[in-house]
Structures are given as structure tokens and as C-alpha cells.
Write a structure and sequence with these properties.
This protein is about 35% helix and about 15% strand. The longest helix has 15 residues, at about 50-60. It starts with 8 loop residues before the first strand and ends with a helix. The radius of gyration is 20 Å and the shape is globular. The chain has helices at about 10-15, 30-35, 50-60, 75-85, 100-105, 180-190, 190-195, 195-205, 215-225, 235-240, 270-280, 285-290, 325-335; strands spanning about 10, 40-45, 65-70, 95, 135-145, 170-175, 210, 230-235, 250, 255-265, 315. The protein folds into 2 domains: about 10-140 and about 260-310, 3-Layer(aba) Sandwich (D-Maltodextrin-Binding Protein, domain 2), CATH 3.40.190.10; about 140-255 and about 315-335, D-Maltodextrin-Binding Protein, domain 2. Strands 1, 2, 3, 4, 5, 6, 7, 8, 9, 10 and 11 form an 11-stranded mixed sheet that branches.
Length: about 350
């Protein structure tokens, strides 16, 4: 069964449940031990530039060095599984989407750790086993468009607008048989479309979308003009548009679907104390404010990314898919899209 985490609500409401007390520090014993360990290795799907901002702030505060390896959520999961099954895990901390994180938890990859900073989140969003952190951000999936080729007035106003003839062959879409987040997004559309869900999927396939590997290539297809629209993360409007000057914006579709993210520490690590210190800082208000400044929708009350109308988005948190569901939908989407 699909596991439900939250109902539709605005970003302000979504963040409100994490608005409690300020960050709590780890014990002096853990911090002292962390300073004697080696460099911390982190695997995740947050963009490298955004993570560098967090690493810089963390290292300045604690004096603990970190190293980051970044890939799509699916590739992060695959690498973690490969290393763990070979008995040679090289990571200390993993952070990515809910679906792969829960699969990795089931595989026994992570250790139990209830970070002090997690205390500000209510019980209903805590991992009952104390392995995964509470969701610390929601990565919002949206429809991006090229502002040089598409006027804001002509951008899609509803999901069904994606099926208009003018977009045929002009939509970049991560391959849902290979990209787990796109697969999760398509499945969760049923909550928005109801009985029109399957006809929409078939109509989207009939649009002959330009298939790409993941969300970054999708955004780049839009920026390059190879696609007019692209399914991707809304945060790229800031990272690629505002920061880098690319001609990209997002269609104002409400509600939007977002993917909850978690962080966890490795069960087998040479740096257990450092992993705890980093995890606690990462989900604290201080760490999340750094992430928000890089375009992320974090769960801190009143904190928004520097993206126009971010505070007006109504976010519905996606239900994550279990391993058997991923296999099922991989087959279904292969039939629909290929």
C-alpha cells in the first residue's frame, strides 16, 4: 500500500508543524568525538552548489570537514545499495527523496538516530523506528517553460493544458521507467485528477514527450529551447534562472505536488559522531535557512525560497512508493509511454 504522509496545504501551513523550539545541540561528548574522526562523506541528490553552502556553514561552525557526492535520487539509491551489498560502504550520511530512503531503510542500510533538532517536529511525522529524520524539505515538482519562447500568459494554467496540440513534441519529461520521482509524480496525479487520471496519462504519452534521464536534463532542454515545457523542480527557476540568468520560469499550477526528503546516517561508518553532528545541524532551523536561500522549500515557519509567488503555492505532499510498487508502475508506464 502507498503510505500517506500529509494532506494538501500551503507552504506556510506545511512549515507550521516544524515551527517549534530553536535547534538543540548534540552532546559535548558526541561533538568532541566527531572532532577526532575523519572527513565526513555525504551522498545525496541536493544540487552540489546548494550543498556547498550548507557544508561551508557547517564546517565554519564545527570545524568538521565534509565531502559530498551528488546524483539523482535513483542513482544515489543504487550506489548506496551496491556499496552496502559489497560490504564496502563509503558513505557516512545519505539524504534524498522519501521513496528511495524508505527502501534503503528496509534494506538495513541506516542506523537509528533521533537528532535533538528533530524534537521540534510533531510525533505524527517522526519515523517510528527513529531511523529516518522527519521530512525537512519538500521538493516541489512543476512545469517549467522557456520565457523567450513562451509568454507567461500562454503558459499552462492547468495540468490538462499540457495536452493542447501546441505542446506536442515540445515537452521534456524524465523517463518514468527510470526516474523514480517522475514515476511517483505520475502516480500521485490521481489525487488531483480523479477519474480523468488515466486519460491524462495516455494523452501525455500521445504528446510524444522528449524523454530525458532526470529533472536537471529536463530543465536544460527547456533552457536550450529544445523543449518549450519541461517537468522538473521549481527550485531550478532560482538556481538556473535567477542565479545564472537562464530564460526559465514555472507555470503557476495549484495545487502542486512535492516530494518529502529525509536524511539518515549509515549503519556502518567510521565517522558515527560526525554523522550525528551533521544530521542534527542539517535539519535545524540554521541549516535549513541556508538551504532555503538556495531555492529550497524547507519546513521552517515563515521561511521561503527566493522564488516569485513561492508563498502562494499550495503543496500536496506526494505519497511515497514502496519497492514492489516501483516495479509495478515501471511496467505500467513502459506500456503507456513506450
Amino acid at each position: 500500500m502507498i503510505r500517506r504522509m500529509a494532506l494538501a496545504m500551503g507552504i506556510a501551513g506545511l512549515a507550521a508543524f516544524a515551527a517549534g523550539a530553536s535547534a538543540q545541540e548534540v552532546s559535548k561528548e558526541i561533538l568532541g568525538a566527531a572532532k577526532t574522526e575523519g572527513k565526513l562523506t555525504i551522498y545525496g541528490s541536493i544540487e552540489t552548489e546548494s550543498m556547498q553552502a550548507v557544508q561551508k556553514a557547517f564546517e565554519a561552525k564545527y570545524g568538521i570537514k565534509t565531502e559530498y557526492w551528488r546524483a539523482s535520487s535513483t542513482k544515489v539509491m543504487d550506489r548506496v545499495l551496491t556499496e552496502s551489498r559489497a560490504g564496502k560502504p563509503l558513505f557516512d550520511v545519505v539524504l534524498t527523496n522519501a521513496t528511495p530512503m524508505k527502501i534503503l531503510k528496509q534494506e538495513g542500510i541506516f542506523a537509528r538516530y533521533e537528532a535533538p533538532s528533530a524534537a521540534r517536529f510533531p510525533a505524527k511525522v517522526q519515523d517510528r523506528d527513529g531511523v529516518l529524520s522527519p521530512p525537512y524539505r519538500v521538493v516541489v515538482v512543476g512545469v517549467l517553460y522557456n520565457t523567450r519562447l513562451v509568454k507567461a500568459a500562454d503558459a499552462p494554467k492547468t495540468l490538462r493544458d499540457l495536452l493542447l496540440p501546441k505542446w506536442k513534441g515540445k515537452i521534456a519529461l524524465p523517463d518514468p521507467t527510470r526516474h523514480s520521482t517522475t514515476m511517483t509524480w505520475l502516480v500521485n496525479l490521481e489525487k488531483l485528477l480523479g477519474k480523468d487520471w488515466k486519460p491524462f496519462l495516455e494523452g501525455l504519452a500521445a504528446q510524444k514527450p522528449i524523454m530525458v534521464e532526470s529533472f536537471i536534463p529536463s530543465a536544460k532542454k527547456v533552457i536550450g529551447g529544445e523543449a518549450l515545457l519541461g517537468l522538473s523542480y521549481i527550485k531550478y527557476v532560482y538556481l538556473m534562472g535567477t542565479k545564472d540568468g537562464a530564460p526559465i520560469d514555472y507555470a503557476r499550477l495549484n495545487p502542486a505536488l512535492g516530494d518529502a526528503h529525509h536524511i539518515a546516517i549509515a549503519a556502518k561508518t567510521d565517522n558515527p559522531s560526525g554523522a550525528r553532528v551533521f544530521t542534527n545541524y542539517f535539519i535545524s532551523p540554521d541549516g535549513l535557512k541556508v538551504l532555503a536561500s538556495e531555492g529550497e522549500f524547507v519546513l521552517v515557519k515563515g521561511v521561503y525560497p527566493p522564488i516569485k509567488d513561492a508563498d502562494k503555492l499550495e503543496i500536496m505532499t506526494m505519497d511515497d512508493l514502496r519497492d514492489e510498487e516501483l516495479k509495478k508502475w515501471r511496467g505500467e508506464f513502459k506500456k503507456i509511454f513506450f
